[in-house]
Automatic annotation (TrEMBL):
Record-annotated Polymerase nucleotidyl transferase domain positions: 14-85
Pfam families assigned: NTP_transf_2
Entry's Gene Ontology molecular function annotations: nucleotidyltransferase activity
Full protein name: Nucleotidyltransferase domain-containing protein
Keyword line: Transferase
Taxonomic superkingdom: Archaea
């Protein structure tokens, strides 16, 4: 996914982080969103947006976190499928963009997204 981009050297640490997120949250899906997913990543200006969709309520303290990937921050947002549906229906730009333009990098078998 990152070959030939300014983020190519982030591929290995990103894969490690994604594996840790799948292990920790047992999600329905994990989506890379924002500039990285759309090929507009700019080193020094962009971060890595990761949306983790789960099938259970999310505690406030686990909803948002930052994870370092070399010299870039990964912003991890954890949301329940129900919350994601409501946010998409309400027109929330971040969630709409993630669902429409993001790259699904993990999906549980049989899982569907709005």
């Amino acid at each position: 996914m990152l070959r030939g981009t300014s983020a190519e050297d982030l591929e290995e640490p990103l894969e490690k982080l994604l594996h840790e997120l799948v292990k920790r949250y047992e999600p329905l899906a994990v989506i890379i969103a924002g500039s990285l997913a759309q090929g507009r990543f700019i080193r020094g200006l962009s971060d890595v947006d990761i949306l983790v969709v789960v099938d259970h309520p999310v505690r406030d303290e686990e909803r948002f976190s930052l994870a370092p990937l070399k010299d870039v921050d990964a912003e991890v947002t954890v949301v329940s499928r129900e919350e994601l549906e409501k946010a998409v229906t309400a027109g929330n730009e971040f969630y709409l963009d993630a669902v429409k333009n993001g790259k699904v990098v993990y999906a549980r078998e049989g899982a569907t997204l709005p």
